[in-house]
Each structure stands twice: as structure tokens, then as C-alpha cells.
Amino acid sequence: MPQYFSERGKSHLEVIERIKSKYGDRANIQFHKTIPAPGIMGLFGKVNFEYRGYLRNDNETRAVQRIRDDDSRAAILAANGKAIPQVQTTSESAAVDIHIPGSEEQIGEVLKELRDLKGQLAISASTPPLEPFPVLAELSELMDKNDFDKAYTDSILEALRKRFSAADLENRELVQHETAVMIAGSVSYFQPEIAERPRIFILVGPTGVGKTTTIAKLAAVNGLSGNKSDVRIITVDSFRIGARAQVETYGEIMGIPVNAVDDYDELRKQIILSSDADLILVDTIGKSPRDESRIEEMRALLSACGDTAEVHLALSATTKTSDLKQIMTRFETFSYRSVILTKLDETSRIGNLVSALSESETPLSYLTDGQSVPVDIAVASPLRLLSRLKGLEYRLAELEEQYPAADLTAAWR
Ligand SMILES: Nc1nc2c(ncn2[C@@H]2O[C@H](COP(=O)(O)OP(=O)(O)OP(=O)(O)O)[C@@H](O)[C@H]2O)c(=O)[nH]1
Ligand SMILES: [Mg+2]
């Protein structure tokens, strides 16, 4: 195994001089890149330069060195999906084969060769192979086990490689904690605006994902015990056998009025009749994402709730990755403000959901993790999401300080 090195400095010359004084002519630079100085999530200040390479064995021949250089170049090209260029056989072709020279002139030549090499390889310096970094390889596997999209995982790995030195990338604890920080920051969380009362909260989504149960949970936590908000439930499009009875049963148990409506005019009337309430929860019957026309009918009907109504999309955490994006796209016609993730208790792999939410930039509002009304619901938070990931280690106390726990009923007071 060759010994790898990584050096940073404020100028090319500074780094090359340092490599020269530390490693002499055993140093073989493989590539260099421009990196931002450490900062917070992409808010960078000054620029630094990082050079990476390996140390030759003293007894290694130039021919062996050349083969290794070509192999490195091929690996980097392959990692970037580029074709391997024809390797020339003249002595000038050994562009990678850099001995650290002594004179300014030679240093100038080295820099020129490095620039040529970068151009020739069209190297994306931010994507060196994972191979020299076992900690990154392990992280990549862990994210795969948690079902994160490949593109999401790649963006995390790339950010880590940009931000950290080669030495830091060997620090498992640091790499995993930073990954947790990035995952936490990659999803946004729903912030209700201070709106006029009554607040109208409509829940839409595919069939059987837990909409009615979630409406009952929200009604209970807001309308019962110490919170005492005036809560009403309206159930829409309740032709399905049992749908009306289900929500009315919840209403009876909680002493919360429930009204069932089936068309625009009835809905409009109920909204007006409930205008003295604090919160109107509107439950809808699930729609198949494939049934565009019924989704459109529902959208037209719900317009009776007015412009200030908030639509939220319920998504089961057990949804197949291949269906997730279709559902999120099909329900876009409702202009939903957030996603509520249900049935988190039924899966141990939520990476696909985090990837999809991050990509669509849709805020997350609530998480549900069981059938019990009202206990199995919580305000969505980065820590609650992270706690569902398997195998990722991070410094909990630090994140707790950054993300204090939210109160379930605060949104309605
Ligand atoms: N494990 C688990 N089950 C849940 C959760 N939320 C709801 N359920 C169950 O999922 C089933 C369907 O729940 P509903 O609330 O009726 O689903 P819905 O979205 O209203 O269904 P439709 O009105 O038919 O579209 C019921 O058996 C619920 O008890 C949850 O967070 N975890
Ligand atoms: Mg229902």
C-alpha cells in the first residue's frame, strides 16, 4: 500500500514547497484542487489549495511509477465517466510523474504540467475515487442501507471531500457527525404563518395512508386537555362505506363537531358556519395518484375552503421509492404546503423519503408512528428524522442545542 499525503496552503507555490521539504522527491502529486476555507454549510470565505498524492517507494523504478500513475489517471477518469485518453510513450508524457524540483523555473514547469494534466483529464477534482478513504466507503454503504438515493449520497460525499482534508476524511466520527448535520439541514420544516382565524388545515393523499387517523390526532391534541382550541372537523367526499362513520366516531369520543360534506356548496356552507372556530380540520378520502380526473375533481371541490386554507400531503413512510415522486407530483395540483409522514413505525429505511423531500424542497410538518390517537404524532424535526436512521453516529447533545424540540400544539395557539 502506498502512503498517501494531502497538503493545503494559500498558494500553489506554498503547498508545493511544503511537499518538497516534507517528502523530497518521493512525493508524487496525483491531483490538486481549490477548496473553500472551512465555513458553515457552504458559506465560505477564503480559498485554499489542496494537493494530494502518494509517496514512492525508494526502490520503485520509473517504469513502475509510470504504470501506477496511468492506473490512477484511469481510475479518476472512470470515476468521472470519461474515456481514457491515449497515453503517449515519449518522456514528456509522464505529466503525472512529478518530482519536486528546486528552481523557480522548474516549479513553474511543474505548475504548467499540473494545469495540462487537469485539462487533459478533464478532472473534476471534487470527485476523487472513494478507494483511498475507507470511512467514506463505509458511509456510502450505510446510506445505501438506509435507502438514500444515489444522487443524494453522492452529493453528501462530494461535500465532505470538498470540505475536509484527506486526514480528516479518515476520521470516522467527524465524517459521520458532519453527515448527520448535512442530512438534518437538507430537509426544511414547515413554519405556519400567523394567519387569520379560523385556520383551515386540509389533508390530502393516497388511500389508506392514515389521513383520518392523523386528523383525529390533530383534533385531539389541539381540542382536548389544556389546549382548548375550538376545533371542528369536516369530512369531504365521504361516499365510501364507513368513512363517515370512522371520523364521526372520533368526533363523538372527543366531543368535537364533525360534519360530512359531498359537494362544493355544502363545503362552503360548513366553512362559513365554522367561521368562529380556531381550527378547521378537513379530512378527505384518499385518491389514487393514477386517477388524475378524481384528483382534479377534489381540487375543485376543496377550492370552497378559500385561498387561506392550507393543504398538506399525507405520505406513508412505507411508500416505494418508485411511487414517491409520482405521488408528490400528482398532488402538486393542490399546492400542498407540507408533507406529513405517516407510519414511520412500519419501516426502518427512510433515506428515500429524506432524498425526495430534499430534492423537492417540500417542508415536513408532522410525523406519525402508530395507530394510537392522539399519542402517536409529533412535530417533524431534524432530530426525529435522524433518530430513524440506522447506524449513523453523531454528537446528539450538539444537535439538540441547535434544534430544540418543538411543541405539538404551538402552531395553533
Ligand atoms: N402503523 C401505523 N398505522 C397507522 C398510522 N396512521 C394510521 N394508521 C392505520 O392505517 C390504517 C388507515 O388509516 P386511515 O386513517 O383510515 O387512512 P386514510 O388515509 O384516512 O384512508 P382513506 O380515507 O381510505 O384514504 C388504519 O388501520 C390506521 O390505524 C401510523 O402512523 N402507523
Ligand atoms: Mg380516511
Structure summary:
The protein is an alpha/beta fold and 413 residues long. Helix content is 40%, strand content 16%. It folds into two domains: 3-121, no CATH class; 199-412, 3-Layer(aba) Sandwich (Rossmann fold), CATH 3.40.50.300.
What would your notes on this structure say?
The structure is a single chain. The protein has 413 residues and is an alpha/beta fold. It has two domains: 3-121, no CATH class; 199-412, Rossmann fold (3-Layer(aba) Sandwich). The protein has 14 helices and eleven strands. Helix 7 (211-223) packs parallel to helix 8 (243-254). It is elongated and about 85 Å long. 36% of the residues are buried. The model is unreliable at 39-45, 84-101 and 119-126 (pLDDT under 50). It binds guanosine-5'-triphosphate and magnesium ion. Residues 207-213, 243, 285-286, 342-343, 345-346, 368-371, 376 line the site of guanosine-5'-triphosphate (GTP). Magnesium ion binds at residues 211-212, 243, 283.
Summarize the helices and strands and which ones pair or pack.
Layout: E1 3-9, H1 12-23, E2 27-36, E3 47-55, H2 62-79, H3 104-121, H4 134-145, H5 150-163, H6 172-186, E4 199-204, H7 211-223, E5 231-236, H8 243-254, E6 258-261, H9 264-273, E7 279-284, H10 292-302, E8 310-316, H11 321-330, E9 338-342, H12 351-360, E10 364-368, E11 377-379, H13 382-386, H14 396-402
Parallel strand pairs: 4-7, 4-8, 5-6, 5-7, 8-9, 9-10
Antiparallel strand pairs: 1-3, 2-3, 10-11
Helix pairs in contact: 4-5, 7-8
Magnesium ion is lined by residues 211-212, 243, 283.
Task: Give a quick set of tags describing it.
single chain; 413 residues; alpha/beta; Rossmann fold; eight-stranded mixed sheet; three-stranded antiparallel sheet; 11 strands; 40% helix; elongated; binds guanosine-5'-triphosphate; binds magnesium ion
